[in-house]
Amino acid sequence: MPKPNNLQQTLWDIQKRFGDAVINPLSSLRSEREAIPTGFAAVDALLSGHGLPCAAVTEVVGQPTSGVTALAQRALANAQGSSKSAVYLDLAGTFDPDYAALWGVDLTRLLIVAPSSLGKALEIARDFVRLPSTGIIVIDALATPTAGVTPSLNRLHEAAMRSRCAVLLLTRSPLAVDADPFIHTRLHLQRTAWLYEGDDINGYSSTVRVTKDKRSPGARAAEIDLRVDRQVEGGAP
Predict the structure, then answer these.
(1) Confidence (pLDDT) at 49
(2) pTM to 2 decimals?
(3) Residue spans of the chain under pLDDT 70
């Protein structure tokens, strides 16, 4: 008699045949999953009206000047406003404290960690997720190779499901297909135009697309404007 496949392989096979949303942990089925507002009203409206889900990993994908960093920092500030701890894993050493402060981040309450690889960052994040005081973790992998991290992402995903912490993974392109089961929500940001005040650039417009959301499947998008004076505008999705 052939040996049965292990549970994880069986789950992957079912999701491949019938779609990611067919299997969800019990924690993802709560009627009111906790969430952290992004600070962008139009984006929160896309995300079931609440924001970035806690107890889950959200991948935020985009090129420089698309709004990825601004979104992450506004979410950090909102998490700090609820008296939760915030952690920023800065793989490339590009964190700009002045820019973060302009978006409302309390630098005195932000822990900066500098892992040497994404794999190590995911393992470190898992340790922080297990702390009840941690409200949000941002893993800035915008300038980092993302191949071969599926096992570490799986372990982080499992820890996040047992927590009340939101995990944001910032990347320039989506993770490989085999990592997809461990991403709860995925946002794609793309700059669509520069904004001018006279002859000077005063910001930019971006499209935010939700391409995966286990709470509410279906692609959807909204437009947002980000200006150098930190004013944010966003129409209805």
Answers:
(1) 81
(2) 0.83
(3) 1-5, 8, 19-33, 229-237
- Beta pairing class for 85-90 and 110-113: parallel
DSSP string, 58-95: EEEEE-TTSSHHHHHHHHHHHHHHTT-EEEEEESSS--
User: pLDDT tens digits for 75-122?
Assistant: 999 999 877 899 999 999 999 999 899 899 999 999 999 999 999 999
Q: Which residues pair with 40 in a beta bridge?
A: none
CB 134 within 8 A of CB 84: yes
What residue type is 159 in one-letter code? A
Q: Are 59 and 169 in contact (CB under 8 A)?
A: yes
Domains contained in the chain, CATH given:
25-231 (3.40.50.300)
Show the tokens assigned to 232.
């944010």
- The helix/strand count (H/E) of the chain reads as 6, 11
Residue-wise pLDDT tens digits, 93-103: 999 999 899 89
**pLDDT at res. 94:** 93
Q: Going along the chain, which residue ranges are E strands?
A: 35-36, 52-53, 56-62, 85-90, 110-113, 134-140, 166-171, 185-197, 200-213, 220-227, 232-234
What Cα–Cα distance (Å) separates residue 63 from each residue in 15, 18, 45, 58, 216? 29, 31, 23, 17, 25
Distance, in Å, from the CA atom of 177 to the CA atom of 144, rounded to the nearest integer, reads 18
Nearest to 224, CA basis, from 116, 100, 65, 82: 65
Q: How many residues would you count in the chain?
A: 237
